[in-house]
Amino acid sequence: MFVSDRVPDLPLDAIETPCFVIDLGALADNLAVLRRVQDEAGCKILLALKGFAAFPTFGLVRQSLPGVTSSSTHEARLGRAHFGGEVHACAPAYSDADFDELLGLCDHVVFNSFSQWQRLGPRYARHLAAGGRAVEFGIRVNPEHREVEVELYDPCGPCSRLGVTRGQFRPELLDGIAGLHFHTLCELGADALGRTLAAFEASFGDFIGQMKWINLGGGHHITRPDYDVEGLIAIVRAFRERWNVDVYLEPGEAIALGTGVLVARVLDLVHNGMDVAILDTSATAHMPDVLEMPYRPQIVGAGAPGELGHTYRLGGMSCLAGDVIGDYSFDRPLQVGDTLVFRDMAQYTMVKTTTFNGVRTPSIATWDPLARRLQVHRRFGYADYASRLG
Ligand SMILES: Cc1ncc(COP(=O)(O)O)c(C=O)c1O
To answer: How far apart are CA 352 and CA 358, in angstroms?
Structure first.
């Protein structure tokens, strides 16, 4: 996993932990890259809310991106209320009630199957007859081309439920369908998109020309320093010109990559075979991808075990025995009250936190590097925990 080495110069002593801090300067830099891709490739880039939805930053993001994509009515509502612009939806299935609500919120709704389209499509006529807004519909396809190594994140794995394969595609049901969508990548480069597009065109080329738009999903790590931005621009521009269609990309990670940290403190130090530090954060509740993916987050000033003089296992404050972030070394012994800064914690963290064990959810703050201003937008407390349970 890529980790940005850019760290905001935060007033750590003043931060009540745990706290996610989003660096607005780093976010603006990412957005500049995404603006360039849109301008030069002639495509639109949407923010995938599933990856990053800290809406106090939306005023800034909206200056560069035309809209959001959502995976649920809640995300679509958040997008409509706090972002504006185009709101899209794409999810494995919609209930009748969710679909009706999405019709009032979205510009594009993408179906994961022709059976959903057949079942829900007729509700759109009723929506229009009642004076509802115009919506365009798409079908998510599965190009059956695998690029993602981690099975948990591979939408093209065996028996995947995500997207219609060529074998299941129903050309006779395309009336009313304006676009095709695929999402097959995860943290990948332009080369992976190029290969995927070739597979998509080989399987679905008969239908692309009839479409108004094609959505190339997310998983494009566009703002990573070694990403081939020129390559992406060339691939997207050529595809758009070849087929005369509008092109959308909908990354989540690429917007937030390298823009946020999680600031935590040491609560206790114990010893059992090795030194162990217990922090006021939790892998399972605050950074679940550390356990799910799994990956080892980087900590400012810390090294691999044994690399620096004092090695610790860093654990979370939940009861889960495996609530362990990893083993790290430091150049001096840790002490209760020490602050640790976990890098690259803006994406897929705030949107995934849980209150397991009642652990306090990290606050959400922004850091303006020019004004040197830390603004805490949200502190979570007992009411947030209790309100989910009854
Ligand atoms: C349909 C769809 N679009 C976009 C994304 C965003 O992907 P990423 O945050 O990896 O760019 C995802 C992630 O799972 C997705 O499932």
So the answer is: 15
